[in-house]
Amino acid sequence: MGYSLHPSIPSKGENLKIADVGTGTSVWLLDIAKNLPRSTQLDSFDISPAQYPEKTWLPANVTLHTLDALSEPPLQFRHNYDIVHLRLFIVRVIFEEAFHAAHLETLIDLFFGGYFLEPGGYLQWDEYDVLARKIVSVNEACPRANLEILLERWTAGDRFKSQGLGNVVEDRRRNHSWHTNMFMNMEFAIQKDYANGFLDKKGPPGSGDTLRQLKKEVGLETDQGSCFDSVLQVVVGRIEGGDSGLNGDGGR
Fold first, then answer.
1. DSSP codes of every residue in 59-105
2. What is the DSSP letter of 53?
3. N or C: which end of the chain has fewer CB within 10 A?
4. Is 146:218 a contact under the CB 8 Å cutoff?
């Protein structure tokens, strides 16, 4: 996209507070830290610290937290942030919507309802638009039947405007053709984690084995020239109220 933090979000004020939820390796937060004032508070959140970098290597204004985003966070984080960022979170949304709809409503309340955000704060969500995803092949002879089955598993919609966020901005970019193999490998990793970490524990009996077999068949089709072609989208919305200029604590 050419940026990490969307350019429509004011970010030059002193004492800003930014949260990255589902942070993984914290790479997004560490990337934006290079261009923000040192007074900015940068907090990473993930359900597991397994991918976190060594704390002694982090900038002094970066803090790592362990948190399940589908559980109500501690009061200390309530209405605490000017900017909240999510990336590649749709996997969790879809899984929970399929099996635990109440958890999806919790997620909506936490992020779209502004639990983390102060009034006037911004939510940025970076995601692959699964509704715009399609299958491409190098020629018509390439098999794609299992890819079509896997494609049917993913359905989700944009919720920003429907949840009342203002100042909604959306950027979209389709993958370059030379990136398709890399993103298929990422797809396989997601499917593996879903089968092993979710379906085996909470899904219908045998559903994990079914997905692992489907993943294997899709891999064979990918080797023969068929794959997913995806659209990356970045959507930004602002919670009502507060200071749209985000001047941090010093400007409130």
1. -TTEEEEE--TTSPPPGGGTT-EEEEEEES-HHHHHHHHHH-HHHHH
2. P
3. N
4. yes
Identity of residue 16: L
Instruction: Assign residue 15 a region (left: φ > 0; alpha: ψ between -120 and 50; beta: otherwise).
Output: left
Pairwise CA distance, residues 151 & 184, whole Å: 12
CA–CA gap between residue 238 and residue 90 (Å, rounded): 20
Nearest to 42 by CA among 26, 24, 29: 29
Round to whole Å and give the CA distance between 227 and 180.
7
| CA separation for the pair 75, 107 (Å, rounded) | 16
CA distance 191 to 208: 10
DSSP three-state, residue 160: coil
Q: In angstroms, what CA-CA distances link 251 with 82, 194, 209?
A: 12, 44, 55
Distance, in Å, from the CA atom of 146 to the CA atom of 143, rounded to the nearest integer, reads: 8
Task: Please enumerate in sequence order all residues whose Cβ is within 8 A of that of 203, keeping only pairs 6 or more positions apart, or say none.
Answer: 99
Give the C-alpha separation, 9 to 37, whole Å. 15
pLDDT tens, position by position, 37-69: 989 999 999 888 888 888 888 899 999 999 887
What token pair was written down for 12? 């030059």
pLDDT digits (tens, 9 = 90+) for 198-229: 788 878 899 889 989 988 888 888 888 888 77
- For the entire predicted model, the pTM comes to 0.71
Tell me which residue of 103, 60, 65, 93 sits closest to 81, measured CA to CA. Answer: 65
